[in-house]
């Protein structure tokens, strides 16, 4: 399925549109099923979204007691480390919203081998969600076309029999844990955030298919699939 492209004037407008979309999606899920399962992403644009959601009027429009937060991927660092996606989301939003602590499901990447962390997180997803898909799964886009921690030429791209997997990313000399394609593709809604002029070249290559086989191009969401972009990213 091709992504529906939403092109906004600038980063601030993109974040506002994303916040409104997030609120609408959360409210619809809670009204229909009584719960909202969302997988968060790292990166500067998602951070802006989280900061916006923690302010009025957005914070009051969601029943946070019915929201369960997960993470699409995480670096294998302590939760207090500056590279931690959880730390970013906690400072930007989680500490500021009235969400029960037991509804925040971080990847415990500081404890045990990465493969063990992946197994435990998959178990947590199964226990909490009982096989339900994510209502919303957020992704960023790297300049190399990676999404979550699904990087080019890594074994994680081909893992389809588990919900999560560990992956060593050679260019960063670091281990990560990431959700796999089956989890992402089964979500009720997938949003890829792309902002800034630095992403214009990769967006152009993807949309014109001058490059193929990138991790983002292997996405095949079964349901709603959006690209939220600003004009700088869509400029080429």
Automatic annotation (TrEMBL):
Enzyme class per UniProt: hydrolase
EC number(s) recorded for this UniProt protein: 3.1.1.31
Organism (species): Methylophaga aminisulfidivorans
The protein's name: 6-phosphogluconolactonase
GO process annotations (BP): carbohydrate metabolic process; pentose-phosphate shunt
Keyword Transmembrane helix: no
Keywords assigned: Hydrolase
Reaction(s) catalysed by this chain's protein: 6-phospho-D-glucono-1,5-lactone + H2O = 6-phospho-D-gluconate + H(+)
Claim: Manganese is one of the keywords in the record: no
Function: Hydrolysis of 6-phosphogluconolactone to 6-phosphogluconate.
Classification of source organism: Bacteria, Pseudomonadati, Pseudomonadota, Gammaproteobacteria, Thiotrichales
Domain Glucosamine/galactosamine-6-phosphate isomerase: 10-225
Recorded family membership: Belongs to the glucosamine/galactosamine-6-phosphate isomerase family. 6-phosphogluconolactonase subfamily.
A molecular function GO annotation: 6-phosphogluconolactonase activity
Signal peptide: none
Pathway stated in the Swiss-Prot or TrEMBL entry: Carbohydrate degradation; pentose phosphate pathway; D-ribulose 5-phosphate from D-glucose 6-phosphate (oxidative stage): step 2/3
UniProt cross-references to InterPro entries, sorted A to Z: 6-phosphogluconolactonase_DevB, 6PGL, Glc/Gal-6P_isomerase, NagB/RpiA_transferase-like
Record gene name: pgl
């Amino acid at each position: 399925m091709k992504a529906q492209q939403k092109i906004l004037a600038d980063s601030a407008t993109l974040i506002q549109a994303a916040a409104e979309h997030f609120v609408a999606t959360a409210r619809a899920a809670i009204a229909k099923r009584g719960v909202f399962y969302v997988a968060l992403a790292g990166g500067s644009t998602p951070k802006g979204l989280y900061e916006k959601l923690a302010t009025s009027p957005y914070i009051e429009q969601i029943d946070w007691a019915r929201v369960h937060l997960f993470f699409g991927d995480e670096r294998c660092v302590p939760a207090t480390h500056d590279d931690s996606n959880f730390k970013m989301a906690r400072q930007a939003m989680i500490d500021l919203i009235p969400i029960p602590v037991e509804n925040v499901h971080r990847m415990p990447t500081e404890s045990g081998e990465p493969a063990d962390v992946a197994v435990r997180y998959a178990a947590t997803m199964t226990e909490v969600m009982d096989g339900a898909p994510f209502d919303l799964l957020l992704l960023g886009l790297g300049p190399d076309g990676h999404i979550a921690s699904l990087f080019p030429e890594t074994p994680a791209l081909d893992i389809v029999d588990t919900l999560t997997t560990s992956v060593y990313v050679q260019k960063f000399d670091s281990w990560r844990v990431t959700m796999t394609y089956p989890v992402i593709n089964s979500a009720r809604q997938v949003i890829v955030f792309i902002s800034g002029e630095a992403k214009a070249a990769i967006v152009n290559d993807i949309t014109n298919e001058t490059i193929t086989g990138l991790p983002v191009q292997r996405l095949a969401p079964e349901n709603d699939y959006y690209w939220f972009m600003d004009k700088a990213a869509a400029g080429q």
